[in-house]
Amino acid sequence: MTASAPQPKYVQQDQPDGVPPLELTGERTLPDVPEENYWFQRHLVVYEWIARQTHGLKVIDMASGEGYGADVIASSAREVVGVEANPDAFAHSVARYPRVRFERSLVETYSEPADAVSFLQTIEHVQNPDEVLENFKKSAPLAFVSTPNVKTLAPEGEERSGNPWHVFEYQLHEFRELCERHYDEVEVLGLYHARKLLVHEQAIRVGWDWLHPKLKITKPFYAWFIPAMNVRDFVLRPADERALDFVAVCRNR
Question: Nearest-CA neighbor of 88 among 26, 22, 11?
Fold first, then answer.
């Protein structure tokens, strides 16, 4: 039996002095990793949208990961608390984002008074989503919760994406029903490709994935294209089954 080739390691580049870089493992997305830029921008656009909704509020960013999202919200919020259990991610975020207060704790139990909670791209990772949402209600009457759409994340013909970090991957009706079990008002938005990502999506439908290997331009094209993506290449609008991600705005009266 031939040993499989080792997978390349991707580590954050150009970190400030005293900030330990994180390695990309697939559990969370990271800034400053060019190969990860598509996923980073896909997350960042939602954080920027939440920042516009929470101007002047106190926000708890649950499962804050590397910390960039909490820092984006802090650009307009009155106060932001980032809650992260992973010791490496926690140490990195404390060192890199001084305007955010970070707490090392579990999303199932951490609670303090706030105006809103954000919980992005993580509910698919937890064993007990109902318990988690009930805990968020102890802190704030407003929650922003996002998750990938299994219908667009999973390979064609498969029921799951194969991501080993995901416990359960949601269809639109499943995600809506989960949120509605805990909140009085739930609005679900969808994230979609726009601008050059929409053009790329359309090109794939007409044979781009057949053409670029024939032209031997795959590596140089994607070496340019992936780092060139930005938040303007995504758009939020009311969700349907074609969404990339679902973003629920959950309120209790």
Answer: 22
Burial of 143 (0-12, 13-18, 19+ CB in 10 A): buried
Q: What share of the chain is helix, strand, coil (3-state, %, to 5)?
A: 40, 20, 40
Is residue 178 in some structural domain?
yes
242 contacts: CB under 8 Å, gap ≥ 6: 151, 152, 190, 192
- 9's tokens: 């390691």
Structure token pair of residue 154? 């999973």
Q: At a CB cut-off of 8 Å and minimum separation 6, what does 197 contact?
A: 229, 233, 234
Residue among 96, 28, 32 nearest 62 (CA): 28
What pTM was estimated for this model as a whole? 0.94
Residue 87, C-beta contacts closer than 8 angstroms, at least 6 positions apart: 104
Residue 225, domain member (yes or no): no
The pLDDT tens digits for 81-133 are 999 999 999 999 999 999 999 999 999 999 999 999 999 999 999 999 999 99
Determine, yes or no, domain membership for 108: yes
Query: How many domains, in total, are found in the chain?
Result: 1
Identify any residues that bridge with 144 across adjacent strands, giving them in sequence order. Answer: 118, 249
Burial (CB < 10 A; 0-12, 13-18, 19+), residue 66, is buried
Distance CA 249, CA 146 (A): 9
**Which CATH number goes with the domain that contains 147?**
3.40.50.150
